[in-house]
Write a structure and sequence with these properties.
This protein has about 240 residues and is α/β, with parallel strands linked by helices. Helix content is about 45%, strand content about 15%. Helix 2 links the parallel strand 2 and strand 3. Bound molecules: NADP nicotinamide-adenine-dinucleotide phosphate (NAP). The site of NADP nicotinamide-adenine-dinucleotide phosphate has 29 residues, from helix 1.
Length: about 240
């Protein structure tokens, strides 16, 4: 039987490429998103053309009850082999102007969402005594980014959470790692001023979603995997 990868936030951008890459590797995909029904439907079609299945789940990760209602019944029957926690938003502003809503929405989606999803799924993975959890953080969570105090806090929080979880579940044969992208060409970064960003990147280009997807795919490979509790930067040298 094919293994299953649960990709949280797979309708667009980086998550979409992760879903397609893992589908190419033979995983059946459980793909979640918030409200982009049409985009998610397109990804589902592309995945099914690769000869594996794709089930869609639409819910808001910042809401525990919604998350549990959407994923709970499925994971009670079967644990996913891989959990990729990728959903995230940015609401950039200098802290001096940042509204309480800009702070709350980013923390509740990016960090509470991790709790809501992982708390719902983890028991089934522990019972299966195997699995991988990959958390998509950001270089902003490693080095900080002006205008992103909320986002950097949420992404640094994910790194701490993933490392602590790695210590809890490693002996249950569940490997937990973090992938921290730099600037990747997606809707999230389309308005960023490229002329100001490029001089910061030694590789002299922005990343592409597939650059992140190939690292996630590597962390999902079966053979000789002894990487656990690590933060792997995919940033062209932006943070080192
Ligand atoms: P994106 O294109 O905006 O896609 C975000 C995905 O997350 C979508 O599938 C979206 O679903 C889902 N999502 C957002 N809020 C959600 C919520 N409340 N509940 C459920 N699903 C939700 O983002 P991206 O640029 O690919 O980024 C993906 C991840 O990488 C994020 O965690 C981001 O912080 C991180 N990252 C991105 C970059 C970058 O340069 N792009 C750099 C570092 C880290 P809908 O389509 O339904 O809204």
């Amino acid at each position: 039987m094919n293994k299953t990868a649960l990709i949280i936030g797979g309708s667009r951008g980086i998550g979409r490429d992760i879903a397609l890459r893992l589908a190419k590797s033979g995983f059946n995909i459980w793909l979640t998103y918030k409200s982009s029904h049409e985009a998610a439907g397109e990804v589902k079609k592309e995945i099914e053309l690769l000869g594996v299945s794709c089930d869609l789940f639409s819910f808001d990760v910042s809401d525990f009850k919604e998350t549990e209602a959407a994923l709970g019944p499925r994971v009670e029957k079967q644990a996913p082999d891989m959990l990729i926690y990728n959903s995230g938003i940015a609401r950039d502003n200098l802290l001096v102007w940042m509204t309480r809503d800009e702070w709350d929405s980013v923390l509740s989606t990016n960090l509470d969402g991790f709790y809501n999803v992982t708390r719902t799924v983890l028991f089934s993975m522990l019972a299966a005594k195997k699995g991988r959890i990959i958390v998509i953080s950001s270089a902003s969570g490693q080095i900080g980014q002006a205008g992103q105090v909320n986002y950097s806090a949420s992404k640094a929080g994910l790194i701490g959470a993933a490392k602590a979880l790695a210590r809890e579940v490693g002996k249950k044969n569940i490997l937990v790692n973090v992938v921290a992208p730099g600037f990747i060409e997606t809707e999230m970064t389309e308005k960023f001023p490229k002329e100001q960003i490029l001089p910061l990147i030694p590789a002299n280009r922005l990343g592409r979603p597939e650059d992140v997807a190939s690292v996630v795919n590597f962390l999902c490979t079966e053979e000789h995997m002894y990487i656990h509790g690590q933060v792997i930067g995919v940033n062209g040298g932006l943070a080192m």
